[in-house]
């Protein structure tokens, strides 16, 4: 029987939450707080979770910690959410993580953009094909941040690997996204706006049906309000949410997104939900910006 991945495709056409990874005072992963934050997302209506995403500080976690985060998320999600596990690094490591995710009960993996100074177009296909072929039962979602990648390369990958079902597209160019999606096959994939709420309205207008979010950790209701507006085609309502979250996302995007995770954790800390600590090369916010983030978070309907 051919796998259709309908459950996974539906889960991608939604708010794809990227949970933070909270740390304890001794610097280890705070499992109890992590579980509480995940339950808060689930209770808030989130139905798609991505452990080991960038908002979860994927590249700052050890291999053992990445496994722990995967296991905690799958355990808490149960039958309440679909889990899309972030994998990456070298091919053997990514394959091992994908197989671990499968064994633990995840339904999908997201393949982080290859971290390498020299990425060829065909090499990009080979990298993702090796991972996708290792877990044919799982839906596979490439995370595309490379503006030079051509849409026909994604089509080539999908021809070889039918389990490549969605794309997290994170190039900050709506026109390029529209062209890339059509060159790759607009209807073949579920297109996820990978730059979160600030880009969601423009990417939805070009064919996206889901978006990723780190902000959702702070206020699930805000993110869900945006996707409901976008699903109904009410762009004025979506832009009202956009205006509501604009400053928060500007702080995250400043200085080459240096404080992308830091701002989210600071907001959570201001609400008493987790510690503010992030791992290098990220760094906590200075006092002045902490106050601004706290004021924004306090003004949302939490």
UniProtKB/TrEMBL annotation:
Q: Which Gene3D superfamilies match?
A: Aldolase class I
InterPro entries under this entry? Aldolase_TIM, DapA-like
Q: Which SUPFAM superfamilies match?
A: Aldolase
> Keywords on this record?
Lyase
The entry assigns this protein to a family as follows: Belongs to the DapA family.
What protein is this chain from?
Dihydrodipicolinate synthase family protein
Per the UniProt record, the source organism is: Streptomyces pharetrae CZA14
